[in-house]
Specification:
- The chain has two domains: 1-65, no CATH class; 69-126, no CATH class.
- 26% of the residues lie in helices and 3% in strands.
- It has three helices and two strands; from the N terminus they run ββααα.
- It has helices spanning 72-79, 93-103, 110-126; strands spanning 7-8, 58-59.
- Helix 2 packs antiparallel against helix 3 (110-126).
- One of its GO terms (molecular function) is DNA-directed RNA polymerase activity.
- This is DNA-directed RNA polymerase.
- Keywords: DNA-directed RNA polymerase, Metal-binding, Nucleotidyltransferase, Transcription, Transferase, Zinc.
Length: 140
């Protein structure tokens, strides 16, 4: 996100707080370099008018990572399927081949794919020792 963004956004204020002055604060959420919202001025980044400027990204540097709540359970399940030491999938060779054939099947609809995912996670949770590196993986 940082590579495609034009400016950092680190000022939480929207407008200049001077009496009678309603100018957007630089490096704030309404910075004119992020795009414009009125018909009379041009964008300070691309110099286009309101109808031609598509808007521009800003980014906020966060002190800690923020995880998407909608994907949190899926991420935990995926992490439980891999070795914590060598990142190999915690399945035997036969299981990998069997599941790979099922995943590559063309007649998988959404419900079958979801059920297959559950079976892969369940099979991975049953294996506590990695077949590749031999380390023990404990789930809490």
């Amino acid at each position: 996100m940082k590579q495609v963004a034009h400016i950092p956004v680190f000022n939480s204020r929207l407008y200049d707080e001077s009496p009678g002055c309603w100018n957007p604060v630089p490096y704030g959420p309404l910075d004119p370099r992020l795009g414009i919202c009125n018909k009379t001025s041009n964008c300070q980044t691309c110099k286009q008018n309101l109808s031609d400027c598509v808007g521009h990204f800003g980014y906020i540097d966060l002190a800690m990572p923020v995880f998407h709540v909608g994907f949190f359970r899926l991420i935990i399940q995926m992490l439980q399927c891999v070795c914590k030491y060598c990142s190999a999938l915690l399945l035997t060779g036969e299981q990998k081949q069997s599941f790979l054939r099922q995943v590559n099947s063309t007649n998988l609809d959404y419900l079958r794919r979801k059920a297959l995912h559950k079976r892969i996670v369940a099979a991975s949770k049953k294996i506590s020792v990695c077949a590749r590196c031999g380390h023990r993986n404990v789930f809490t």
